[in-house]
Amino acid sequence: EETGGERSEETIWTVLKEEADGPFRFTPSTHRLNEMPVEGVGSLPPTDSRLRPDRKALEEGDKQRAATEKHRLEEKQRSEKRERLWKGEEWMPRWFEEVEDSLDPGTTLWEYTGSYWDRDRSHDPQLDVFGT
Question: Tens place of pLDDT for every residue, the chain, 132 residues?
């Protein structure tokens, strides 16, 4: 900004000097991104990764339980795939569709369909993605 022919400077943003800590060397800002406020849990979609039991175990430092939960989740996914193959069903993304990139013809992108919140979630077994 110039005032009376002279340039004045105003700092509008500075980088915080944060020390990484913990087993994953996360900064405090990174930890805050992963925090889940108790009052907001009910409004989170059941597919929110912050609800993953393996992730929660890692955050609590329980590597054995995290590995067990991760294995359980992967086995659930493998089982679902076997069932789809047995039924002859092709896997299709639920909430995204492949579209051509308008800025880079010949390249495709995955675009959100907007359908995640536009359905009855009260009786949707597909939303139990973590198998809890």
Answer: 555 667 788 888 787 777 777 767 777 777 777 777 777 677 777 778 888 889 888 888 899 999 999 999 999 989 989 999 999 999 888 889 999 999 999 999 999 988 777 766 666 666 677 766
* CA nearest to 94, candidates 69, 131, 119, 122: 119
Check residue 18 and give left, alpha or beta (phi > 0: left; psi -120 to 50: alpha): beta
CB 59 within 8 A of CB 24: no
Characterize 74-85 residue by residue with b for buried, 16 or more Cβ atoms within 10 angstroms of its Cβ, and e for exposed: eeeeeeeeeeee
Residue 112 dihedral angles phi and psi, to the nearest 5°: -65, 135
- Pick the closest to residue 24 from 50, 49, 60, 48 (CA basis): 60
